[in-house]
Write a structure and sequence with these properties.
Helices cover 41% and strands 23% of the residues. It is of the alpha+beta class. The strands form three sheets. Strands 1-9-8-7 form a four-stranded mixed sheet. A three-stranded antiparallel sheet has the order 2-3-6. The protein has a two-stranded antiparallel ribbon with strand order 4-5. Helix 3 (52-60) crosses helix 4 (80-91).
């Protein structure tokens, strides 16, 4: 019988609220040597994920989109909406301001190969594992999948 997400996920992962300060998030990631955290509301439902990638904007800053001027009109060569989103992440002070909303998720009963396919196809490093009510019950990382593969070969 193939392994399921429940067999290899990390149960009851550390979570943060949207009001958690960026400083606290950075400390939690560094102390636990992890790369991301689920963000949950006051009822425990998932509202986003905050990762190292989201936090990079804090250090690297944001470059305005390229544009040209023609007859006193500004024509953006890139989507200015993306710039506004990136700027918001660079200036954000809480997990809710910086997090990635609507993250890809999975349920604990899914076969592990399905989870691996989802992670590969969507290029995500972690999948919050949700119960029927949308509460976080675990987290599955690429490392969890690789460790499960190694255990099968041993």
């Amino acid at each position: 019988m193939p392994k399921t997400v429940a067999d290899v996920m990390t149960r009851d992962p550390l979570t943060v609220s949207p009001k958690t300060s960026i400083t606290e998030v950075i400390q939690a990631l560094a102390e636990r040597k992890i790369s991301g955290l689920p963000v949950v509301d006051e009822t425990g439902k998932l509202v986003g994920v905050i990762s190292e990638t989201d936090l990079m904007w804090q250090e690297s800053g944001v470059t305005p989109p390229a544009y040209i001027m023609i007859l006193d009109s500004v024509i953006f060569l890139e989507n200015p909406t993306r710039y506004q989103k990136d700027l918001h992440k660079a200036l954000g002070q809480t997990a809710g301001e910086v997090m990635t909303r609507d993250p890809t998720t999975i349920t604990a009963d899914q076969p592990l190969p399905n989870a691996a396919r989802v992670m590969h196809d969507r290029n995500v490093r972690r999948l919050p594992v949700l119960d029927e009510a949308g509460h976080v019950v675990g987290i599955l990382t690429r490392g969890d999948i690789v460790r499960a593969m190694a255990a099968e070969q041993a």
